[in-house]
Specification:
Shape: elongated
CATH architecture: 2-Layer Sandwich
Bound molecules: zinc ion
Protein name: RanBP2-type domain-containing protein
Helix content: 25-40%
CATH topology: Alpha-Beta Plaits
CATH class: Alpha Beta
GO molecular function, one term: zinc ion binding
Pfam family, one: DUF2007
Order of helices and strands: EHEHEHEE
Number of helices: 3
Keywords: Metal-binding, Zinc, Zinc-finger
Largest sheet: 3 strands, antiparallel
Strand content: 15-25%
Organism: Photobacterium proteolyticum
Number of strands: 5
Strand order of the largest sheet: 1-3-2
Amino acid sequence: MGGPWIKVYDAANNLEAYSLKGMLESEHIEVQLSGECLSSATGELPTDVLQVGVWVREEQVQLARQQLAQYEHTAASSWNCPQCAEHNEGQFEICWQCGCDRP
Ligand SMILES: [Zn+2]
């Protein structure tokens, strides 16, 4: 361990960055986030406009990319209900709000 840090992902906000960090760390991947210190330094920047870089060690890049690909696949398969516009996660086949079928 101890290779250079490589950025593998640009998270849209702190929340996503931390959930990715948790996911990668559960696979024993060492993670550093960049950008988060900016928001905590001012305390006023809205967290949702700041991109946060997700960095891992060079030797763990491949493993991290596999995990991120899985994450993106799950995120991409979520859907919005055509009837009530409720956002549903990818694992639901009907809208949990109104019971409408997935389009
Ligand atoms: Zn619905």
